[in-house]
Amino acid sequence: MYCPYCGHDLPGHVGRFCGTCGISIQFLAPFLQNDPGSMSDELMEAGLISKYFSEGHTYDVILDFLKTRHNIFLSLSTLKRKLKNAGLTRRTDYSPIETVNAVITHELTGSGQLLGYRALWQTLRQKYFLTVKRDDVMHAVRRLDPSGVQLRHRRRFIRRGYFTAGPNQVWHIDGYDKLKPFGVAISGCIDGFSRKVMWLRSGSSNNNPGVIAYYYMKCASEFGVPARLRTDCGTENGTMVAIHCALRAQYTDDFAGVLSHMYGTSTANQRIESWWSFFRKQRTQFWIDLFNDLRERHLFNGSHEHKCLLRYVFLGILQKDLDEYRELWNNHTIRPVRQSSCHSGKPEAMYHLPHRFDARDCGFPVSQQVIQEFEDILPPQRSLCGDGNLQGQFTDLQRQSGLFSPVNWITAVENYITLKNMSGL
Fold first, then answer.
1. pLDDT digits over 195-246, tens only?
2. Which domain holds residue 383?
3. Same-domain status, 338 and 256
4. Which of 79, 160, 240, 412 could, after both became Cys, cross-link 213 (CB 3.0–4.6 A)?
5. How many structural domains is the chain composed of?
6. DSSP characters for 15-65?
7. pTM (2 decimals)?
8. Residue that finishes a domain, picked among 110, 125, 154
9. DSSP-derived 3-state class of residue 371
């Protein structure tokens, strides 16, 4: 004899549930008691009737299923009689409300919390074989899960929440490559709780592990080390991660040592990835348009020499602009959002005054002596334009022509064109 639901071979003595699929097969017991050897067809028929009935099909649909898929022909009165003999009813012998509440509570601990009362009512009938009124399920869900009912009533997509205990719990670090076609690489770090920009630096590369580690050490010497770092899997983060884990190894909290760093995909590093969109709309789009204009005027061709000259002339002005934007961002007001549970306010205030936002500083202090020891083992930083020979050449040309350092983007463009013509690029 086989289970009518999964087809598993059943033992001679049928229990309450199938040992493979776990579905109740107690209705098969009366047939085995009569004649276990000659009732296989009738047992299969009873199992199919019970299956389709538990799925909520009407009598006509059950008869059509039996006829079309299993070549079993029954009349309506015969079907009703078989259902009555098996104790399968829709509106009598309701399951105890205590049992229904217990099953609903169990479902709400898992993926069942996403279901409305109609889908949950169907789950109770098909998965747990409970006979219950739909209205009773509705009232039970309202009582047991009022917040879930309210969220489903709003008919909005429920996103995962971002929660941190306070500033310096997580720093999110990433590189910005939209200016790389022009030779300018940007690296940034943002605090997850306050959204304070910890550093925003431009240079010839954001793929050099020594450069990223240098940015981290300068920031750590001023603010201490965070409880955790969050980066993508790029090789440029290796040195910084090693230093951070070494600094955190002396502590005994739950995220000490190697647990203080999290690798993940760049697209999942949402705190800083979402901030890059603000950064582009409010700051870098101007520089992208400016450098594209130089390229369209055939003043920039993307070669190594042109990139070095552009960095030599523009990097100081660009870094000054980044520092200005970082200062503006850290002191602007982040307005509250109804769909978000994150705190609102000025990033600078949220970072330095966490007690005003029911939070605490989660960072760890580090001595300047330790910082200096790690800085000593870092490789020396590259020259401003990334090529020492070319930088020396551009410096000599600037001295010969009497050009002053640019004070804004207009004078920077003039210096760039002058030095480009003098160097023959």
1. 999 999 998 888 889 899 999 999 999 999 999 999 998 888 989 999 999 9
2. 170-423
3. yes
4. 240
5. 3
6. -SB-TTT--B-GGGHHHHHH-TTT-HHHHHHHHHHHHHHHTT--HHHHHHH
7. 0.69
8. 154
9. helix
